[in-house]
TrEMBL record:
Involved pathway(s): Membrane lipid metabolism; glycerophospholipid metabolism
Annotated binding of substrate, by residue: K84, R231, N232
Keyword vocabulary terms for this entry: Cytoplasm, Lipid biosynthesis, Lipid metabolism, NAD, NADP, Nucleotide-binding, Oxidoreductase, Phospholipid biosynthesis, Phospholipid metabolism
Protein name: Glycerol-3-phosphate dehydrogenase [NAD(P)+]
Enzyme class: oxidoreductase
Ranges for domain Glycerol-3-phosphate dehydrogenase NAD-dependent C-terminal: 156-294
One of the GO biological process terms: carbohydrate metabolic process
Main localisation: cytoplasm
Organism domain of life: Bacteria
Domain Glycerol-3-phosphate dehydrogenase NAD-dependent N-terminal span(s) in chain numbering: 53-136
Amino acid sequence: MNEIGPREAPERSTSVCILGEGRWGRAAGAILTENGHTTFFVHHTLTAWPRRFELLCLAIPVQHIRETLRRLPAPAVPVLSLGKGLEIRTGFRVTEIVRDVWGTDRLAALSGPNFAAEIQQGLPAATVAASQDEALAARVQQLFHNRRFRVYRSSDLAGVEIGGALKNVYGIAGGLCTGLELGENASASLLTRCLAEMTRLGLRLGGRAETFAGLSGLGDLILTARSRQSRNFLLGYHLARGISLKEALARIGSVVEGVPTAASVRDNLAVADIKKPVADEIYRILFEGKAIRRSMLDLLEREAAPENG
Ligand SMILES: NC(=O)c1ccc[n+]([C@@H]2O[C@H](COP(=O)([O-])OP(=O)(O)OC[C@H]3O[C@@H](n4cnc5c(N)ncnc54)[C@H](O)[C@@H]3O)[C@@H](O)[C@H]2O)c1
Ligand SMILES: O=P(O)(O)OC[C@H](O)CO
């Protein structure tokens, strides 16, 4: 789909270092290259930067970010998170881990409904570039935006990162629902209640309501909770078909961020008083061996409640 690629070369080419050579790091690199920027990849075992650059992108699984950053000196450039998840033991978002390890405060995140494989095929998509520093959000938007990858910008960094992390947990729920053959009504109902839950949790954690209704919240939730391309959806689907967690993870063979994020939501966030029945059941299924059908029944048999309670 080259005909909907970038219209013209950028005014100035930016040098971007991408830490992580997985699916998403490579897809993000392809967009930057398409937009006329210089990108290079560094391996996660690196202990020194091989050359100068103007932006660092982090595209490694969230649970490995802290140990990876600790091996490297803090670069004097902005850091862009491409990851989606929360750290176990701290509950930190990716940019919070970066600030904790390196003290960096020029931080941004790119998040939205974006399967790497479709981006690599040149198919159109949209996403959000977020930073509390509005100039940095605009810079990231400008770097990635083109006619087939529409980048919107936001100053709600927390909301964008929280939506991207939580949708992985709800993606597992979507896969369970499909694997149990509960029907399209159940799937749409579940997804809508997951959005309500994501919004309640996200507001407590500092995000803004409108962010969860946007691309990085609802948009990515629709994608992850309904598509077999999603690793989180697939995990739920396999579990519902009677495959063990260990075997399902082995079959998927790549990072499933919803698993550690479900543990982090349960154990590390100050959200014990927030109603989050779906995330609680996903945690019980993954970490306490609760039977999936029992979990579904427990969700359905809760007391009738107001929709916006
Ligand atoms: N794949 C997608 O479609 C997609 C889209 C948007 C966001 N993301 C997010 O991007 C992040 C990376 O996902 P991915 O799909 O690229 O994963 P991946 O499994 O394809 O690649 C992960 C990469 O992380 C690095 N890595 C592997 N082991 C490591 C270790 N022990 N320590 C440090 N780094 C290690 C390697 O470079 C590896 O290639 C995740 O947080 C994911 O949620 C993925
Ligand atoms: O395959 P998943 O479930 O990790 O989803 C990938 C992306 O986050 C989709 O936006």
